[in-house]
Structures are given as C-alpha cells and as structure tokens.
## 1
Amino acid sequence: MLSHLNAPQREAVKYLDGPCLVLAGAGSGKTRVITQKIAYMVQECGLEARNIAAITFTNKAAREMQERVGKLLDSRSARQLTVCTFHALGVRIVRQEARLVGLKPQFSILDTSDLQQILAELSGNADKNLIRGLQWTISGWKNALIRPEEAVKLVNDEISHAAAKIYPAYEKTLRAYQGVDFDDLIALPVRLFDTEPEALERWRIRLRYLLVDEYQDTNKAQYKLLRQLAGQRGAFTAVGDDDQAIYAWRGADVENLHLLQKDYPQLRVIKLEQNYRSSNRILSAANTLIANNEKLFEKKLWSEHGLGEPIQISMARDPDHEAELVAMKLTAHKFEFKTHFRDYAILYRGNHQARVIEQQLRNHHIPYVMSGGQSFFDRAEIRDLLSYLRLMANEDDDLAFIRAITTPRRGVGAATLEALGTYAGRRHASLFATVFEEGVSEHIAARQLESVRKFGDYIRQLSHRAHQESAGVLLEELLRAIGYQAWLMESCEVKEAETKWRNVRDFVDWLSRKGEQDQKTLHELVQTIALINMLDKGNEDEADAVQLATLHASKGLEWPYVYLIGVEEGMLPHQSSIDGDTIEEERRLMYVGVTRAQRGLTITACETRRVAGERKMVDPSRFIDEMGDGLRRTGKDAAPVSQEEGRAKLANLRAMLSAKPAK
Ligand code: ATP
Ligand code: MG
C-alpha cells in the first residue's frame, strides 16, 4: 500500500512516535501523505478510524479528502473518520460541550450580515466602512485569543478604540441570542479546554491522532486548539508550505511553523522535493517567482514530467476583451485536444472579476461552476428561509425572529416589534419568549398580538416535529403555510421572482438530500449551512464544467489547464498591498495560482481597466517578469479581437478557399 509513495513520503506516513511536520513545496504530495497516513494507521496499525481527525482548510477540501480516503478504507471506517475544517470541529465540540460553554446545543451561528447589524446597533452608526472595520478588528482579537479586558490595552487608532469600547457588549449580545460568530467556534473550545481539564481529556481520548493540512495558514487560536488536543505526546502530523501562506490578512501566522519547532523539540521535520503535479516549465517559473521572496526554509522542487508547453502570456485591451479571449482560447483548446470542461480552471484575485467572465462563458455556452463567490446561502430568499429554520432550532435567536416574522408581512409592523423589543429588553428575555408572556398584552394591541402569537405557535409546532420528520418535508410545508412563492411574486418582478423561486427549490432539494445522506437533524443541518457560508462557497455539482475560483479558494487543488486572469499591477499585486508593502504575500498568492496548473498555464493581463469609474492604463504585473524565461507572449493583435471580427476573418478565409484559382 505504501508503494504509491516516495521514500520521504513513506517516512512521514510511517512515523507515529511523535509530532511530525512535512514541510514542502506545492504539488509535492503533502495532502497525499495525509490520506495515505490515515489508511496506514487504520489498516496497518489497528487505530480506530473514529479516533482520527483530519483537518482541512475548506469544506471542499474536506469532501475531496473524504472521497480519497473512502477509496482506501472499508465503508464503516470511512464513515467514522472525522474529516473537516477547524471550524466544523469547533462546532462539534461546542455542541457537545454546550452547557459547559454556557450555550444551548442548538445555538445559532450568526453570519456576517447578522454581525454587522449587531455592530451597527451597538455603535449607533450605520457607516459600512466603519462597521466592517469594527468587525475586522474584533475578529482579529478573537483569532489571537484576546479578550475584551485585554483589548482595551491594545487600542492604537480610532477604529480599535471604538471596537474595544463595544467588544464587551458585542459578546454579551451574541450570548443573549444564544449565538456565536465564526471566531467563537475556535475561541470557545480553546477557553473551555483551558478551564475544564475533564472536557479536554474527553476530547483527547476521542481524537487520538490529528492530521492538519495547509498548516501554514492556521491562526493563533487554531494552533492553540491543536496543541491542546495533541497534548505533550504531540500525536499529530501537520503538512504545509510557507510559500503558500496567503491568509495573514485573516490572522494566520507563519510564525506557527517556528512555534511548532519550539513547542515540540522532538518534532520530526520531513521535506519532500519531488513535484508530481506540473510540467517543468510551470514548475521552474513558479520556483523562479518565489525565489524573489525572503526565504523562511530552503526548499527545492523538481519534476519528472517533461518540459511541457511554454507558459502563454496574453494581453487584452480591457476586462471584457480579456474574458472573451479566455473563452475563445478555451473553446479552441478543448476542441483541439479533446479535453473535458472540468480540465480547466479560471482563477482571479478578487470576486468582482468573475462577473465578466461568467457573462462570456454563457455567451460561448461553456458550463462552469464557481467557488469563492457570493454564496448560494447568502441570497436573500435563502436567508429568509434560514431565519425560520434558525428560529425553530433556537428560540433565543432574535435576529432570526425579526426576519422570519416580517417575511412575508403578517400585519406585524415596526411599532409592534419595537414595543416587543423594549419589553423583552426590560425582562432580559428573548423576543420569542416574550411573545407568550402575560404582561406583554399591555404593550401591544390585541390584533397584532394575536398575529404574533399565531406565528410563535406555528414555529413551536414545527420545531417539535423537527425531531422526527425530515428537514425537506418540513421546509416544503413551511413554504406552503407562509405562502412564500406568492409573496415573491408580489414583492419582485416576474423574472426575479422566478429565479428566486428556482433557488428556493434548489435549497429544498439540497436540504432533503443532505438530511438523508448525513442522517442529521434539522438543527445540525442549519449549523452546517452557516459553515458553508463562511469559507468555500463551493458548488457541490460534479458536472463537467469549468471551475471559476478566487486564488484563495484554489488552494490545494489542481487542474490540467489553468487561466490566471487580471495579472496586472494594482490587481495582483493588489493596490492595497503595494501601498501597504505586503508584496510578499501577493507573490505567494501568485505562486499558489501558478502551481495549480499541471500541463498548461495561460496568464492574461489588461492594458486598461476602470478604476473608480475612470478608464486607466495599467501595467502588467511585476510577477510576470519575475517568472523568468520560458514564457511565450502573444500580443493582443495575435488573437481575434471580437466575435464579429473573428467571424469576418473566417468568412474571408472561406471566400479565399472557395475562390477559383487564377489561371
Ligand atoms: P499543494 O501544496 O498544492 O497542496 P500537495 O503537496 O498537497 O500540493 P498533492 O495534492 O498531495 O500535493 O499531490 C499533487 C499531485 O501529485 C496529486 O495529483 C497527487 O495524486 C500526485 N502525487 C503525490 N505523490 C505522488 C507519488 N508518490 N506518486 C505519484 N503521484 C503522486
Ligand atoms: Mg495539498
């Protein structure tokens, strides 16, 4: 079974006597070490799969790893294995230890817009930039395990001053709603394990061995959680690549690589040097590029794959032209090499770049899936329904209460809600609980109160049934009962309403499928959705389609042919990192992008782009020059410029061919 591995990979798989770190460049088989090690531990060493946890960076990566390991293990073991993200592991811990953490097991995971609403209320300011700044700052503190009383001492500018001021109230509000934010999913378990040794022992027995992929992107809180669970024995294997650290902006800390060596002096460090992914041209361009960064650890990478195709560089006039160029090149390439759509990925720095690409792919009838974009679960219509589901699970979730009771409108106006809110606030109770209190009738008119109570009764009834009945069936019934489709028709234009309704149907299907597949209760499902929301807003479709993804979302994945678009100064490296002098992180991002490609890499850049509404000339990215030789440049004139011109050229060609030869 270890025959599919090279010598250092085998060493990493077989080493179980202490903590192990595999430090190696892209495509060298780090993730393969993790999957093989799991199989090895179960099959050769007699470890129970339920005692092993593999931590991946995204849900998509978790799904893929589960699939790969599933092929190596028997089905029972595969089911018992834990493969998930740090956050998903956090949810499990918080759910199981809820009482010790001070929550109900059905706590709500609040999403970004819920949190922004809370922050706006607490700060008494609705300015979007300010709110985002506050959220960012508080999240940063939580990822670094800094509590409100400590944050006060770290204040150094206006935003952090404002953030420190509302941080305690923010925490209180979340708890009052029986809610947590994403950062709590790590911070709460860490705090719990700090203070409750018995709980920690329970989890150490449960998870005897941990494997962590993409270790370079863990933040301080995640590292602490790993250390707590792994204990002094250091029963873990971490794999990572410092050259692919691209989450510093979210609190990830490459220092954790050094810390590991400091905290575990017995750490076995294994390096891998053979790349199995890319052709040598791609690999050498990636190596040359990343050599421009200050080195943390020396690494070499070589590949047995041949030299391969030269990397193509294409210049476009502007983003529309660029998108068209990519769509046409892709179509031509697919035709010539008889490939599948799923062999291609189009990668970009920022989400906003996807829109033009999507447009062109649709024009060319090229199927695609997208990850890293606006989540399906973020759409208004889905959030409407989720608010009902959240409320069914957690009556204390005031945000869900307000959204559900006002969608669709049931004669409960702002004045009623305000009166209810004031009364609830005085009694320190949730809105939902207040609805059924005697005293509330003095503050709310009888007719309104009747509507509100009817709503409350209905939710309780559904919530009760959620213990036995399937999530899909309940949701189906809920839609009928609240007349959601009719309400969509009333409140939006026909086309929009139809799209929304289609999304709702997709959601019902998804929930039914998921409920059956994973044997999860509605409450557990709702928590899973909040997690999907957070990171990889991936499409689970397995269809034959081109993948669109942000560079961040592409981490750990690979495709035969990759198009990297918008490789310009100001885009990649991003303007903010040019200003803020964080070019090295951008270079790593470029390195991640380049190393996703197996056989073919095309880089495109625009000559002009709209910046703040104005058309501006832009330069190709410095990273293109930094990749060295072996790049083939094609000017914008070398490619057909538009469909019309392309067609005109074709018509000319036909005319020439069919013209009678001159005598
Ligand atoms: P990244 O840094 O991008 O996450 P990685 O180091 O995790 O890359 P993998 O994804 O594990 O690399 O492996 C890259 C490719 O090489 C995969 O297609 C994998 O199946 C293949 N591979 C890894 N090790 C071997 C091996 N020993 N023999 C053949 N193929 C291998
Ligand atoms: Mg990997």
Note: Residues 312 and 632 are 5 Å apart (CA to CA).
## 2
Amino acid sequence: CYILGIESSCDDTAAAVIHNGTILSNVVANQEIHTQYGGVVPELASRAHQQNIVPVVHQALRKANIDKKQLHAIAFTSGPGLMGSLLVGTSFSKSLALGLGIPLIDVNHMQAHILAHFIKVEGQTAPNFPFLALTISGGHTQIVKVTNYFEMKVIGQAIDDAVGEAFDKAAKILGLPYPGGPLVDTYAQQGNPKAFKFPKPKVAPLDFSFSGLKTSVLYFVEKETARNPNFISENIEDICASLQYTIVSYLMDKLKNAVKQTGIKEIAIGGGVSANSGIRKALKDAEEKYGWTTHIPKFEYCTDNAAMIAIVGELKYKQGIFANKDVVASARLKF
Ligand code: ATP
Ligand code: FE
C-alpha cells in the first residue's frame, strides 16, 4: 500500500511516500527565516508551513511517481510540537483524507523518531524487541524501553533543557548561528576533546540535566574572554570538542545505567542529535566494548522528516489503527 506522511511539528515542512516499508520520496522544506532570530519563531513557522505544505506534498507525490488517487492513507504528526505548526499539518491532512475518502492516521512525533528504524534501508537491520531507544532532539532527551511498536515506556528523561537545546544554546554563546548543534559537531572534529573540562550534572541515574552545562560554558567563556578578547575564535575547535565530549560521555553514562537496570543490550538512537558524529562513534565503539547491538539511523531519518511519519502510518495501517475525523493536534502529546 501507498501511504503519505506529513510532518509539521516545528520548523520543517516535510512529506514522504512509503510503499511496503520502502521510502519512495522524502521531501523537506527547511525554514531559513528563523536563522536571523537565533531560534524558531512560532508564528513565522506556521505561516511558512502554510506556504510550503502544498508544494512539498506535490513534490513528494511526483518524486514517488504516483498520483494522490493511489494513496491508501494519510499519516500526520498530531504532536508534540508547536501548536500553530501542528495545526497546519493536521487540518491539511484531514481535508486531503476526507477529499480522497481514505483513512487518516495520527502519529506521535517522538514515537516516529524511534520507529524510523523500521524503514527498510539497504545494509541495515531493524532493532529486535525489546530495545532501548535514546531519543535526543531539539525538544527531548529520553531513554525509552520499547517492547513492541506501540508499547513504549519512558524510563529516563531531561529534567530541564533538552540535549539539542544545550548544543544550540552553547553554540549561541560561542557566537555561532542557529541551529548551532551541527556547527559544534563540525568544529569538534578538528579539536582536542580534553582541552577544557565541563561538569556533568548529577541527577537520578536515568535522567538528564543540561541547563547547568549552558551556564558553565557561559561563565567559562566570559572569564577567558576577559583575559583574551580573541579566546573564542582562537580556541573554537577545542571548546567545541570538549563540549561535545562532555555531552556524549554524559549520554553514554546514562545509557550504561539503563542497560544495567533493564538488562537490554539492543540500543537504537533517534532524533536530530543522533546525527552527531561523537555519539555515532561512541555507540559504534560500545558494540565491541560492552557487547551492545546498536542501531544508528540514516542521516536523513535523524532530524525532522516525514519518512518517519510515513513508516508509523504504515505500521498503524497494517494493524487497523486509524484516527477519528475529530482528532486534534496536541502540543504536549505523550505516549
Ligand atoms: P523534537 O523532536 O523534540 O520535537 P525537534 O524536532 O526540533 O525537537 P530535531 O529536528 O529532531 O528536533 O533535532 C534538531 C536538533 O538537533 C537541533 O537542536 C540541532 O542543533 C540538533 N542537531 C542536528 N544535527 C546535530 C549534530 N550533528 N550535532 C549536534 N546536534 C545536532
Ligand atoms: Fe523532532
């Protein structure tokens, strides 16, 4: 069957077509407008979604080489995310499903970041149940015990800032443009991870705290810049490498705790920060070091995309789990 996935939870408008586990098209329109504000402006995001959604869906259908009349269902992100952004995708998807007379499927964005692992990718195998998912993104940091496709339990999470937010806020302090996470990663690859030391906050064994890290980067940079005004530009690689090393080893510490507590050694990562080269390498190393089986998504299925919405749509379609016509978007949707 052919299923169209639509994602509009934050600042990316995305559409994808899936056919029996294989992605036929995966289109994302990024919104450049937010860069000048140093963060996502919700009102501008929903306006851009309104402009982008029709062309993005057309392009997804064209690239998949199918007509909309061939679709079997429409899957869309119903939350969590920015309300104004979610509303655009929700109302568009409802109208399209109604117009075509096909089922509508609501998808939880955070579940989709995890279930993206079930997209068929050459040379990769999907995780076996039960597995632990580390979801690391702009808005979330979670360790999830996944027993089946729709049986998931959050066993650890951020008590303040999300990890992607920590990357972006630290990057902002360093004068890097938004979103700074990928830039920190790029600089980190040229630097010495042991050059500077940042603290790893102590919280419950499976929980995370990142707001202190941002503050310590701020104080550190202020102190050093007072002595040498060019401190940041002269040391950007080492600062980024040290920062990334701290974050990655903190994430790995928590994963080790979760493995110890659950006895599960099958690990999958998801969310935008799983594009990070440091966490990817640390996970690969953990296969040999600790005997884990690790699953790292393809780059384009890490950050926000509609392919992950389409795969959840297909999994739900096969089980006959559909949304009612009165389904609503929910900014704080849980699972
Ligand atoms: P959520 O999924 O929680 O609703 P979101 O959808 O905004 O949040 P994603 O698109 O999944 O988040 O991820 C975006 C985040 O990933 C940003 O904070 C960005 O800086 C970060 N990110 C992307 N690539 C990298 C990288 N290579 N290294 C570090 N962070 C990265
Ligand atoms: Fe996301």
Note: The chain has a mean pLDDT of 97.
